[in-house]
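Supplementary Text 2. Reproducibility record for the structural model of the 409-residue chain.

All settings were left at their defaults, and a single model was retained for analysis rather than an ensemble. We include the record here because the model underlies the residue-level annotations in Supplementary Table 4.
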Amino acid sequence: MKIQNALLLSLAVLASSAAAQTTIKINGYGGTDPAVVGDLINKFVKPALAKDKITVVYEPLQGDYNKSLTTLLAAGNAGDVFYLPAETLSGFVATGKVLPLNGVVSTSPYIKSLNTAFTQGGKVYGIAKDFNTLTLVYNKDLFDEAKVAYPDNDDTWTDLQNKLTTLKKNLGNEYYGICLQPNFDRFGAFAYATGWNQFDSKGKTNLADARFAEAFNFYTGLAKNKVGITPSEVSEGWTGGCLKTGKVAVAVEGGWVVNFLRDNAPNLKFGTALMPKNNKTAKRGNFLYTVGWAINAGTKNKSAATKVLNILTSPAVQQYVLEQGLAIPSRTALGENAYFKKTDAGAVNSRLVFQGASDGNVKSFSFGPQGPDWSKPINDALAAVLSGQKSSADALKKAQQDMNTFQNR
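Retained model, structure tokens:
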């Protein structure tokens, strides 16, 4: 009997121990993210949760992340915690599979515009893990050679246009003022500077709005006399590539361009300025490119998942990520971090990317509930005008027709 009781006691202890072990699965991107998140788990999450007997594993979703996550959520197999891209927020919220974080996680330490990026219907569904905004990144040598002042944080649209026009005139046919991506993901920042809104109260997009036309005409007008060119005109695929050639003075890009230039144009001396201000509104426009940490509404381990999310967005983790040059932190207080006070080109770029999140008309880069195809009418219009195939008026008329057809589907 004693042996039997001892055996039962041992089994009970083992069962209790097993029950106490909790595994939190995280879904996120592939590529370099498994190494980055794995590092954060080992350095910060594991030590903090050791006494809680919580194990954390990262399972990357390869290929189309949004499609893969949608499938896993529908099947009930998604992670307890997962990346939530702001650009596809509406679609994921509509599934009912994302846990509202109101009253679960404090949002007050984070940049207000980032909280807004993950808010829908008054509910917050994600905490930004990091972010990027757009800046003007410029080739110092070209401005010096042309004897033109660098773009600066006080420039208006007209100031920038005058600087680029003079630079082109002084340097000649082989050089260009700015690289113009024919896509909403760059142009849209200029539209927001005018006060234009992506959707009206009925969820429709008005491309006939005079403010949208103002931005469209300014942006495409920069191509006049080849002051501005598209990436394909210098055999590149994006504006960072334009800078790399040494033939283009300015690109509208985020912080991701810094490492690209260091690796691909190590001798290029670059500077960074905030986006220019619209002449009428005196405001800049900008995008927030951000991915948040979210919690699966169906998790059986809500408390443990919340602990993991809080650690991954903690001051210690965000400071580490910043100082490693991995990303820009979402916590407001880190704007005072010593890293941002450095004067090297990379640190200056990071500081202005951070500042851009709270300066002017800043909106989340997103497509709305119908997904990425929303931007196609705008992209087509930009491409048509920048290539000289259509006038601005004709392109905008066609874009509105196409947008109406798309939104009425």
